[in-house]
Specification:
Blueprint lengths: L11 E7 H16 L7 H12 L3 E8 H10 L7 H22 L3 E2 L9 H7 L6 E10 L13 H4 L5
Helix pairs in contact: 1-2
Length: about 160
């Protein structure tokens, strides 16, 4: 409710899938990937999909493109910026949802199997055609600790001026 958006457009949308719907979503991903993943890579790909399907649920993140078009018409001076602002709002929304899961002890990851799955997901779950799929976030009880990763030095990523 309180995620900022350009001109208070509130164009972000979400669909939360549980139980059968959650399983169906990941079966759709699996079937679409089987069409394009080389045979020798398929076992590794399917193992990854299995982990997402074993989650408790999935949040599908969308943007309502009808609102984007309206903003472009109402504010032609900024029409080139609407898509960028939309992505910024999505990032904030996804971070808030991820943080909420984390605060309640759940794990989550952000996946991007779109546009590969867009059409089938839209038809299967009766998603409005003006909604554009942005990302998928499976969530549930973490089965392992996050993998360690290296970080680029803050001195290379941050400038502070007074």
């Amino acid at each position: 409710m309180h995620v900022p958006s350009a001109f208070n457009a509130q164009s972000s949308r979400a669909v939360i899938l549980f139980e059968k719907a959650h399983g169906t979503m990941w079966e759709i991903v699996r079937e679409e990937l089987r069409k394009i993943v080389p045979f020798e890579q398929l076992p590794k790909t399917e193992k990854k999909i299995d982990t997402f399907q074993a989650a408790y649920g999935t949040v599908l993140f969308y943007e309502d493109t009808l609102i984007h078009e309206s903003l472009k018409e109402r504010f032609p001076l900024y029409k080139e910026d609407v898509e960028t602002w939309s992505k910024e709002g999505q990032g904030m929304l996804q971070m808030i949802v991820w943080t909420a899961f984390s605060e309640t002890g759940l794990g989550a990851s952000l996946q991007h199997y779109n546009p590969l799955i867009d059409f089938t997901i839209e038809k299967t779950f009766s998603i409005p055609p003006t909604w554009k799929l942005i990302a998928q976030m499976p969530f549930g009880v973490s089965t392992e600790d996050p993998k360690s990763k290296s970080f680029v030095s803050l001195s290379e990523r941050l400038i502070v001026k007074k």
